[in-house]
Amino acid sequence: MTAKEQITKILGSISSVNIGFSGIFIFKSSELDQAQLGYAIDSNGKSLCGKRPSQWKESWIVIGKDETEGDPVFVDTSNAHLPVFMAEHGTGIWEPFMIADSLEGFEGIIKTLKELSMSRETPLGLERNPVTEEEANQFRAMLDEQHPKSEDWYWKLMISNDF
Question: Which residues contact 152 (CB under 8 A, 6 or more apart)?
């Protein structure tokens, strides 16, 4: 199975998730080509990819975006595990940080967040039904165990009860 086929398969099994003020928008597989606009290609279809460390790479495929900041969530297809990254947009350079060691792991994180987000999708919902210490500890333990190479601060911030 190609990387694109794996991405399409995973995107078919997950959807966007919101907890309080935080969230990740996940593109549908039919939206993948359009999702690359402004990252891998410009509005004329010209490549924006480069070889320098701070440039967008041809192997990066945008699959979503952070709901708060609009930062891209993308898969690095040059790695067989298909790790998932995020990078701040609008700075003129791309400095990615890994948020999941693999695409399958990302799927697991999103599915777990979906369960945690039940009746917490909005800021008011989270205020009325905060993430319990036990739930947060279980989520953190899963991240530590299954994603030892990733920057888990992003996910931990997402489930925090800070309003």
Answer: 140, 143, 144
- 70/76 Cα distance (integer angstroms): 19
**How far apart are the C-alpha atoms of 98 and 149, rounded to whole Å?**
8
Instruction: Tell me whether residue 88 is exposed, middle or buried, using C-beta atoms within 10 angstroms of its C-beta: 0 to 12, 13 to 18, 19 or more.
Output: middle
Q: How many CB atoms lie within 10 A of CB 124?
A: 11
Q: What is the pTM of this model?
A: 0.92
Instruction: Show contacts of 90-98: CB within 8 Å, 24+ apart.
Output: 92/54, 93/54, 93/55, 94/54, 94/55, 94/56, 95/54, 96/60, 97/151, 97/154, 98/149, 98/150, 98/151
Cβ atoms within 10 Å of 32's Cβ, excluding its own: 16
pLDDT tens-digit readout, 76-135 = 999 999 999 999 988 888 999 999 999 999 999 999 999 999 999 999 999 999 999 999
Q: From edge to edge, which strands make up the β-sheet containing 60-66?
A: 17-19, 22-26, 60-66, 72-76, 84-86, 97-100
Extract the tokens encoding 161: 């009860």
What are the angstrom distances between the C-alpha of 59 and each of 17, 25, 85, 88? 25, 21, 12, 18
